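step: validate -> pass
step: tokenize input -> pass
step: predict -> running
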Amino acid sequence: MTIELWALLGVAAVLWLAILVQQLQLDKVAGAQYALSNRDEGHRFDGATALTGRLTRLVRNHVEGLALFAPLVLIAAVANISNAWTQRTAMIFLVTRLLHFVFYAAGITPFRSFAWGIGFFIAIGGFVFGLVTG
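step: predict -> pass
step: emit ->
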């Protein structure tokens, strides 16, 4: 398995962890009964915290990042392209997504935005460059 595919697996694992943490926070705030329901009716979280909102936004943001990264990695795998650009930027993307998770959940600004920007602009841009030149 290529480094790029390992990085994709890592990014997916970070998403799994983010969803788990978000669900545990939802259980804490809304109760297990709501968490186990169909959630057909909206719920006002009387005990909602800033953390609850951040975790919800974090998961959504991570899904969006994964939606950009996964096709690039899969294209590289199908095209049998793996070079220094794709490998390094895939690892940069993984590290920045992990840092983004920690900073976002902890409410640490502006580092959350720095991690996002590096992952989005440098890693995604570098990966596309690696694909084009590979």
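step: describe -> The chain has a mean pLDDT of 91.
step: cleanup -> pass
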